């Protein structure tokens, strides 16, 4: 899970499974809170899922700034490539 495309596909799959979303709704431009109706508890579940997939934890402060699926992809990309 290194490229942004890989991260997006993994994230889309996770969001479809975790939140029962239709895959076509999960786009890079989709707003997590308005478009996908993800609440703060869902966000914690998503952070936990990312941690299990990458072995690294996204800081809560970093996650507060994300608004779109693309923002999450970028945060995970920076996380997994920081140690590289």
Architecture overview:
The protein is an all-alpha fold. It has a single domain (4-82), classed as ACP-like (Non-ribosomal Peptide Synthetase Peptidyl Carrier Protein, Chain A). 60% of the residues lie in helices and 0% in strands. It contains four helices and no strands. It has helices at residues 4-19, 40-54, 60-64, 69-82. The protein starts with a helix and ends with a helix.
Strand content: under 5%
Taken from the alpha-carbon principal axes, the silhouette is globular
User: What is the residue-averaged pLDDT?
Assistant: 89
Our Rg estimate from Cα atoms comes to: 12 Å
Instruction: Note the quaternary state here.
Output: single chain
Count of DSSP helices?
Answer: 4
- Please identify the top-level CATH class: Mainly Alpha
Q: How is the CATH topology named?
A: Non-ribosomal Peptide Synthetase Peptidyl Carrier Protein, Chain A
N-to-C SSE string, H for helix and E for strand: HHHH
């Amino acid at each position: 899970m290194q490229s942004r495309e890989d991260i997006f596909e993994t994230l889309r799959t996770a969001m479809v499974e975790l939140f029962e979303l239709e895959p076509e709704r999960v786009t890079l431009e989709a707003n997590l809170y308005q478009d996908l109706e993800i609440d703060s508890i869902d966000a914690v579940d998503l952070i936990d899922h990312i941690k299990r997939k990458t072995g690294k934890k996204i800081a809560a402060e970093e996650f507060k700034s994300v608004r779109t699926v693309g923002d999450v992809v970028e945060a995970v990309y920076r996380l997994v490539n920081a140690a590289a």
